[in-house]
């Protein structure tokens, strides 16, 4: 292979193409040490991925409280499954699959939780209820426009919501999104288009 007469030796080209970035090597090392039982390594993995997984869960549920609970559960489940995990270079994608499954479970059980919340209170039960004050940082960051958008995304059908969260919030490429969801890139494009149309209707264009 050459460029303007400059030949690139095949061995050098292969080495360049197969070179692993230092950050990827570091992450793989953290995963490997975590699988061997190193709590400090796993704690570092959590810190590296926590904000991304929280954003994923928040985009899916629309609720900061539910997102925080789901985020914690994702890392607990991932830690329990680490001994069976093999592909150390795909840890982020593996976490995303766990988060997606947990969000699916949360959506299915939401109806049962809402029914329980709406049951009539027993006499005197309202005396024990406490209305928690919002966190200052949450109140400052949660503008009404963002809250409306979050509710609109959470109200989308699952097939549309997940592509918005993966591509729109997480910045995942359409190819990677398609691989994660087990569909074609064209299907992802179609879902993104329908999601945009629904969101425009929900938030008033």
Describe it.
The structure is a single chain. The protein has 205 residues and is an all-alpha fold. It has 2 domains: 87 residues, Orthogonal Bundle (Rna Polymerase Sigma Factor, Chain: A); 62 residues, Arc Repressor Mutant, subunit A, CATH 1.10.10.10. 71% of the residues lie in helices and 2% in strands. A two-stranded antiparallel sheet has the order 1-2. α3 crosses α8 and α9 crosses α10. The N terminus is likely disordered.
What's a quick, concise take on this entry?
This protein is mainly α and 205 residues long. It has helices at residues 10-18, 22-35, 39-61, 64-81, 91-117, 136-141, 144-154, 158-169, 174-181, 185-202; strands at residues 2-3, 6-7. It contains ten helices and two strands; from the N terminus they run E-E-H-H-H-H-H-H-H-H-H-H.
Shape: globular
CATH superfamily of the largest domain: RNA polymerase sigma factor, region 2, helix turn helix motif
User: Which stretches are low in confidence, meaning pLDDT under 50 for 5 or more residues running?
Assistant: 1-8, 10-20, 112-136
Order of helices and strands: EEHHHHHHHHHH
Q: Strand arrangement, largest sheet?
A: 1-2
Mean pLDDT: 75
Q: What's the N-to-C terminus distance?
A: 51 Å
Class by alpha and beta content? mainly alpha
Text of the CATH class of the largest domain: Mainly Alpha
Number of domains: 2
Report the β-strand fraction as a percent range.
Answer: under 5%
The biggest beta sheet reads: 2 strands, antiparallel
